[in-house]
Design brief:
The complex is a heterodimer of chains A (456) and B (93). Chain A is an alpha/beta fold and 456 residues long. Chain A has 17 helices and six strands. Chain A has two domains: 79-264, no CATH class; 286-455, TPP-binding domain (Rossmann fold), CATH 3.40.50. Chain B is mostly helical and 93 residues long. The chains are: A alpha/beta (456), B mainly alpha (93). Chains A and B meet through helix 1, helix 2, helix 3, helix 4 and helix 8 of A and helix 1, helix 2, helix 3 and helix 4 of B.
Chain lengths: 456, 93
């Protein structure tokens, strides 16, 4: 199919705008502009596609665009910021599903000719289908629809078997051209099941990495189908995302100290409590906590997902403003995996109005805990557990943590005495300079604000 | 398309993606994952072509499904990313 120059030119422009937009998104100041630029690229590419001569089913295309695009546009407007990770997962899965469906039509038509095109079509279909069902499972888990981690007996063996079976069927699809319908259907069914079975046993804490991995998968699938369709814009956008997503996945896995192979093949289990912890947890009241911070020179706040769940970020920011007016220096320390995705906590704080120049990464702030009078830990647990540095028996040993224990005083706002997401006891809570403030983060922050105000 | 030419595009695009992410601060990882999620929504263009050239009802049905999914990927990905990035502000107020 030879396309007129204006269609090809528009696609080229779309790809260019994507790259420029993605580049813009790599710095906070220009990030917003970046996504808008990329958005124009998408509109341009879609509009040009309508102008392809001889394109049939235009009404169907418009209807599908309206249903899919309109529905997603409306639902994405309404979703809460804490629920963002699962929305990314589900939209990503849809992209993977679209790539797989493109391959399905190509097979049905017998349009994929030649070894390279058939191979890439099949590979894209496999990756896209796995990403589709896998992302749906990831969505269901984060949304709380699926609460249990389903684990088959001999899970790893089943995974490998299914993967081999799908590859084998894929090879048969490639080898036995023209494609046999039964074979193609079997191939798709096995690929879809593979995505389900691989993702089901993975725990919620590991989901961000998995979503990022599926994001990279979908990118690759789109790139491969782009080759089959002879569309360089799809190739470029897909492969750029595939590479960027792969790197992002590695960065996340590194931040959690969980190699990707561990996440996919061994679920995180509390392999034992680790070393016994001596000492007791000491309680403190909101009024004392307020006084400790009010008369401090420097306070570092460590927010965790517990703060976001309690919707306490607005109260925490109000408290921060009062402390700053009183002359206290306040900074926020964010662990790479705080929240449900790297950077998720930054988004939640930004929503509450915290400017991003008060928010610091682990590497930037860890040296400062030694000079802080108070470290206030709100709804975070594993990311401040000093056992990760010292206790080789602990399941989280080796994970980089925020050195909150090095502050003069540590105040921990926590709902109860339970352990964190990983099920590990936190040695920090038993240290001499640590005080526990039991309660829900939002009312507790509210109480601290009241006491701060009465102190003037 | 020329197979070798496509291979070169694959290679250069892979390096471009790698370079763009390599220098990104952690605070942007979530919006960037979401932003790259939006960008592979370009799959909708491929789906439109497939549906536009579909010949049988079966091909039309699968193509329709593909366009709807691709459009959802693009539209949802855009809104989510734009909402997140819209909240990043440098100074209070």
């Amino acid at each position: 199919m030879t396309l007129p120059l204006y269609v090809q030119g528009a696609w080229f422009g779309g790809a260019l705008l994507f790259i420029v937009g993605l580049k813009g998104m790599s710095s906070p100041a220009s990030a917003r502009r970046g996504i808008v630029v990329a958005g124009y690229g998408m509109l341009l590419a879609i509009a040009a596609t309508f102008l392809i001569p001889g394109l049939q089913n235009l009404a169907l295309i418009a209807l599908a665009l309206a249903i899919g695009g309109g529905g997603a546009w409306l639902s994405a407007q309404k979703v809460k910021m804490t629920d963002m990770p699962q929305m990314v997962a589900i939209y990503n899965g849809m992209g993977g599903g679209a790539a797989a469906a493109i391959a399905a039509v190509e097979f049905a038509k017998g349009d994929a000719h030649g070894l390279v095109a058939t191979t890439l079509a099949t590979l894209g279909a496999l990756i896209g289908a796995v990403s589709f069902t896998g992302s749906c499972v990831a969505w269901a888990k984060l949304q709380g629809v699926l609460k249990k981690a389903w684990r088959l007996p001999a899970q790893n063996a089943v995974n490998v078997l299914l993967a081999l079976l799908s590859l084998g069927l894929g090879l048969a699809v490639i080898g036995l051209a023209p494609q046999q319908p039964e074979l193609v259907i079997a191939f798709f069914v096995v690929a879809l099941v593979l995505g389900l079975v691989v993702t089901l046993p993975i725990g919620g804490a590991d989901m961000p990495v998995v979503i990022s991995l599926f994001n990279a998968f979908t990118g690759l699938a789109v790139g491969f189908e782009g080759y089959v369709l002879g569309n360089p814009a799809l190739i470029i956008a897909g492969i750029v995302v595939g590479a960027a997503g792969t790197l992002l996945t590695q960065l996340m896995a590194k931040a959690m100290n969980r190699p990707l192979s561990n996440i996919l093949f061994t679920p995180m289990v509390a392999s034992g409590p680790g070393e016994a912890i001596s000492g007791t947890m000491k309680e403190v009241g909101a009024i004392d906590a307020a006084a400790m911070m009010r008369y401090a020179a420097k306070v570092i706040i460590v927010p965790g997902y517990g703060m976001a769940v309690a919707h306490a970020q607005h109260k925490v920011w109000e408290m921060t403003s009062i402390l700053e007016e009183a002359g206290v220096e306040v900074k926020f320390a964010i662990h790479p995996v705080a929240g449900r995705m790297p950077g998720h906590m930054n988004v939640l704080l930004a929503e509450a109005g915290v400017p991003y120049d008060k928010i610091f990464d682990l590497e930037e702030i860890n040296a400062e805990f030694g000079q802080a009078d108070v470290a206030l830990v709100i709804g975070a647990n594993d990311v401040v557990n000093p056992s990760a540095r010292t206790d080789k028996a602990s399941p989280i040993y080796g994970m980089p943590i925020l050195d909150a224990d090095k502050a003069q005083n540590v105040i921990v706002i926590k709902r109860g005495k339970g352990t964190g997401y990983s099920g590990v006891e936190n040695a920090l809570f038993y240290t001499d300079n640590c005080r526990m403030l039991y309660g829900d983060a939002q009312p507790m922050a509210g109480e601290i604000i009241q006491h701060l105000k009465s102190m003037g | 398309m020329d197979g070798m030419l496509a291979l070169y595009i694959f290679m250069l695009a892979a390096f471009t993606g790698y370079e763009i992410i390599a220098k990104v601060p952690v605070i942007l990882h979530t919006p960037l994952m979401s932003g790259s999620n939006f960008i592979h929504g370009i799959v909708v263009v491929g789906a439109m072509i497939v549906l536009g050239l579909a010949e049988t009802p079966l091909q039309q049905a699968i193509g329709f499904f593909a366009v709807a999914l691709g459009a959802a990927n693009a539209a949802g990905g855009y809104v989510v990313t734009e909402r997140m990035l819209g909240m990043f502000k440098k100074k209070e107020g």
